[in-house]
Amino acid sequence: MSEPKPPTPTPGDTYKGWLFKWTNYIKGYQRRWFVLSNGLLSYYRTQAEMGHTCRGTINLATANIAVEDSCNFVISNGGAQTYHLKASSEVERQRWITALELAKAKAVRMQAESDDSGDDCPAVPPTSGQGGGCRNLEIQSTLRTLGSKVEDLNTCNDLIVKHGSALQRSLSELEGIRVGADMGEKMRQVTERATLFRITSNAMINACRDFLSLAQNHGKRWQKALQVERDQRIRLEETLEQLAKQHNHLERAFRGATVLPSSFSNPTLGSKGGVPGKGDASDEDDDNEFFDAMEDPAEFITVPADPKYHRRSGSNNSGISSETGIDDQSFDELSLASNPESPQPLELEPVRQRRTRIPDKPNYYLNLWSIMKNCIGKELSKIPMPVNFNEPLSMLQRLSEDLEYYELLDKAAKCQSSLEQMCYVAAFTISSYSTTVHRTGKPFNPLLGETFELDRLRDCGYRSLCEQVSHHPPAAAHHAVSEKGWTLRQEITLASKFRGKYLSIMPLGSIQCLFDKSNNHYSWKKVTTTVHNIIVGKLWIDQSGEIDVVNHKTGDRCHLKFAPYSYFSRDVPRKVTGVVTDKDGKAHYVLSGTWDEKMEFSRVMQSSKGENGTEGKQRTVYQTLKAKEIWRKNPLPEGAENMYFFSSLALTLNDPEEGVAPTDSRRRPDQRLMEDGRWDEANAEKQRLEEKQRTVRREREREFWNLSICLVFLSIHLLSTLSVFEYLDSINDSPLKSTHPDNYQAMWFEKLDDPVSGETLHVYKGGYWEAKDQGSWDVCPDIF
After folding, report:
1. How far apart are the C-alpha atoms of 691 and 545, rounded to whole Å?
2. Residue 736 pLDDT greater than 50, yes or no
3. DSSP 8-state code for residue 641
4. Burial, 505: exposed, middle or buried (Cβ in 10 Å; 0-12, 13-18, 19+)?
5. pLDDT value at position 51?
6. Which 8-state DSSP code applies to residue 379?
7. Confidence of residue 697 (pLDDT cuts 50, 70, 90)
8. Pairing of strands 502-508, 462-471
9. What is the pLDDT of residue 267?
10. Of 72, 92, 77, which is closest to residue 18 (Cα–Cα)?
């Protein structure tokens, strides 16, 4: 977290971020962009409003900051303005509270200095991290204490000068008088002034002693801090020198690289393997962390573990040897740093530069009445939907977008523990929904036999293939394999229900992930996607339901719950929670976060039964260690709102490539025309392709019925010559039994029963990449 700002503003003074602000009982909490700068907290609806429209500002110098619970806090300036705010997690709330408190203290100090003296005091430069902020506050507090002591010394000095002068005058007068009646009065004055001088001198001595003691104590601490900073600077200089040497080495290797041998056909694997995973939460300043307790009917809550777990060292099957040392690092850094199999990037080969932009989405007006008028008198199955509702990607390409966060599976493949591996697989499951938060456009329905390849072998170490294996019902098969030792396969069929105000999309089928090293076999299903405001209003998407990720080899299980959005809920929108358990039902990890932003996981040290919820269920209380960030969503590219809110990966999916199959989605003409902004031509081409597919389907059905008639006559003949059992055996071996409902046999996939999960799905049978290497696509139909 960026540290709050010093009194003198600089370009890095502001602290920005998303918070949820309570609006009213109708809309509940709404997401707003908050900016903290120069003692003022302002908020906007979006980041784009920062340049022109501010929705509200509160001065922290006169504000009161109060914490309500683990995520909620209130900022009020005495009744005129009150902000009820909510952070996405307790860690985020603590960051905001720290930033607000520091900004308030500095605003009050600046106001006092301007009112009292107006003298310019040198500002202590800010340091990064919350630990630097604490040191900054400590130094400022010490300087204030030393300043007050100096003021005491100045006051005592003035009093000593005053009383010393008076005593000197009295002694001079005493020498000039004769012995008589005035002698007693003069002696009394001298004694009184001597007493005052002694008292002032003692006060001066005490103030000097305090100042000296304070200066000595803090001087030693500052010397140690200075030595630490010097050591750190030396280490940074050594690190910088090593990086410079590596940079020069890579430059020489790059300049001298020509044609690499076959053993280095995938150099990017080494560079990927040596980079630690993004999103390590080890820089948090709390030893323990509270998870946001879920509202009833929640199944569990989490609390910080006892401090003894942080001091205890021990090894377990997940490879975590010390809770105090290793717990402060991410599992990613440990596994990558200690993995001897990670190749070193000795030689580099330039990889393909992929595009980062597509043509902006045209602002075409959609006339629903003209669409309905053109549909009068047509069959329901022949009514074409205009591309205005689409995005220039097919469903096969959207399915391939699940691999955007493939690094999670790379890290999972390196895990020694199946429970830790389960955490990464669960995070990968959640990450596949992060691209849907703004993507309200409908992908193109693939034609039967349409394929899509995603070859990232040089870039990322994996490649995948999708094929539309059925049209009624629509079904797509996906197969991805990585050189890091994992295989992902899935078959998805979509079922939808229109419920008036919203559309529910229920993905059917399962997803499986296999790891070569451990032979762990995971499977799970997708949750329901809901598109709201179908008739009136702005479209928005929500994910809800439950997912069970199962390891069929060990019996481990992760139960994930996607909370549906509610206007009246005080919980964080798009929240996801999960618990990783072993085959005996014992919890080992807890996951929490949102499916559109990030996920964190923490290790469970102890569990117990807690209080009953509103429905009488007894909730489980988990004592956990500090949470680690396991996944964070990549930021959208610049101008994404004009490019259908595509991610960086999605922008490259429809980029034309040489050598792909003629059935590849990149070659689909209507989709290409839409991407180029020629929507009228795209609508005409889309209608032509759909009519061509109907013609091919009718021809295929005609062949199917001709085959059926022949089989009927053959059955009559066999029935007259064979016994009943022989006849049944002949029917089981007939080609009619193995025919797909579409009478279509997939080109690159075959339908098999998985013996491990017990599910039936299309599995890649091979041949595609060999055909691509040979440039032989004779088996591909002409679908475009």
Report:
1. 37
2. no
3. G
4. middle
5. 74
6. -
7. confident
8. unpaired
9. 39
10. 92
Where does residue 307 fall: left (phi above 0), alpha (psi -120 to 50 degrees), or beta otherwise? Answer: alpha
Phi first, then psi: give them for residue 757, nearest 5 degrees: -90, -15
| pLDDT of res. 338 | 40
3-state secondary structure of 542: strand
pTM over 0.85: no
High-pLDDT (> 90) share of the chain, %? 31
Q: Which long-range contacts (CB under 8 A, 24 or more apart) does 748-751 make?
A: 748/451, 748/465, 748/467, 749/467, 749/469, 749/477, 749/479
**Pair of tokens at residue 14:** 């502001």
Q: At what angle do helices 90-116 and 130-176 cross, to 10 degrees?
A: 30
- Residue 425 CA to residue 412 CA, distance in Å, equals 7
- Does position 19 have pLDDT exceeding 90, yes or no? yes
With 80 as the cut, is the pLDDT of residue 283 above it? no
Burial of 93 (0-12, 13-18, 19+ CB in 10 A): buried
CA distance 779 to 784: 15
Angle at 770 between CA 766 and CA 773, to 5 degrees: 155
Give which of 480, 451, 498 is closest to 657, Cα–Cα. Answer: 451
Pairing state of beta strands 442-444 and 390-394?
A: parallel
pLDDT, tens only, 117-130:
444 444 444 444 44
Specify the range with the lowest mean pLDDT, choosing from 229-243, 377-391, 667-681: 377-391
List strand residue ranges (DSSP E) for 311-428, in order. 390-394
DSSP symbols for 18-62: EEEEEEETTTEEEEEEEEEETTEEEEESSGGGGGT---EEEEGGG
Distance CA 357, CA 372 (A): 34
How, if at all, do strands 300-304 and 618-624 pair? Answer: parallel
Q: Is 269 in contact with 345 (CB distance < 8 Å)?
A: no
Residue 581 backbone dihedrals phi, psi, to 5 degrees: -125, 155
The residue whose two tokens read 């709050």 is 4
**pLDDT, tens digit, 9 for 90 and up, residues 430-449:** 999 998 888 988 899 899 89
Compute the distance between CA of residue 425 and CA of residue 432 in angstroms, rounded to an integer.
11
Q: pLDDT band at residue 718, thresholds of 50, 70 and 90?
A: low
The arithmetic mean of pLDDT across residues 240-266, rounded, is 64
User: Of all residues in the chain, what percent are helix, strand and coil, respectively (each to 5)?
Assistant: 40, 25, 35
Q: How far apart are CA 556 and CA 422, in angstroms?
A: 8
Kindly indicate the confidence band of residue 555, based on its pLDDT and cuts at 50, 70 and 90. very high
Residue type for position 310: H
547 and 557 in contact (C-beta within 8 Å)? no
Six token digits for residue 625: 């260690």
* Distances 360 to 397, 643, 678, 686 between C-alpha atoms, Å: 19, 5, 12, 20
